[in-house]
Amino acid sequence: MSQLQGYSQFKHFNVSSPSEFVAHVEINRPKKLNAFFEEMWVEVGQIFDKLSYDPDVRAIVLTGAGDRAFTAGLDVQAASESGLTSTSGTDGARRATSQRRHVLEFQECITKIEKCEKPTIAVLHGISFGLAIDMSSCCDIRICSKDVKLSVKEVDIGLAADIGTLSRLPKIVGSLSWVKELALSARIFGAEEALAFGFVSQVHDSKAQSVDAALKIAALIATKSPVAVQGTKELINHARDNTVADSLKYTAVWNSAMLQSDDVKSALLSGLQKTKPKFAKL
């Protein structure tokens, strides 16, 4: 596994390239259970912005360092010390305006994962609370290990989840009742339940096996046409948020441009000739 060029400036994440066209982003604060403070969520937005346009990346795996946690969520102590919860000073409207701007900035940084043009695969293990659900809900594929402990934790710290879980989770799984039960109770649930309700697509015995499975999926995706892969992600996400009729129209417009790619010819010829196609960087 080699360091991915151009990402060494990030302090709280390891960004490497385990195989051709695959990036591995590892949250790297294991002594604090990979809990996030402001500098970290700013960094994650910058990383996924950069990966989105990196021609040497076609698929991304997101993991947490250490054996204990993907992430325990927000570092509550750091948040309290930053003054985020302060009620002193200016009047209520001005405090609310400041806090709203802060939340919107936080949301946008995490949303960068979803907006990334490249497919993203989250590997959840150990403690995966709060922000873990926000971040993994932004990913295209979710895999977990049997030891995972998941929770929409925010009501336990006195607030409604506000970084994306309440907006995305109901669109990922098939039961609004289950989503409300989790969000209202903050109860911990495990791998078997996450698989049964469709939050994850695979469960493996250990973190190592889960990461290995994710890297294999990413490597397979990376062999496909980047034009086709990025278009597929875009069109699925558009379909999620729009009507069937609107999505069909959008698909027609999208492919009227993208079918001009040389990748279509390369893929068709490789099938006929039984060779492995090579696709230009995008």
From TrEMBL:
Keywords assigned: Acetylation, Fatty acid metabolism, Isomerase, Lipid metabolism, Peroxisome
CDD domains from the UniProt entry: crotonase-like
One Gene Ontology cellular component: mitochondrion
InterPro entries to which the protein is assigned, alphabetical: ClpP/crotonase-like_dom_sf, Ech1-like, Enoyl-CoA_hydra/iso, Enoyl-CoA_hydra_C
Biological pathway: Lipid metabolism; fatty acid beta-oxidation
Pfam families, alphabetized: ECH_1
GO molecular function, one term: delta(3,5)-delta(2,4)-dienoyl-CoA isomerase activity
Primary localization: other
Compartments, as annotated in UniProt: Peroxisome
GO biological process, alphabetically ordered: fatty acid metabolic process
UniProt key word Acetylation: yes
Family, per entry: Belongs to the enoyl-CoA hydratase/isomerase family.
Protein name, UniProt field: Enoyl-CoA hydratase
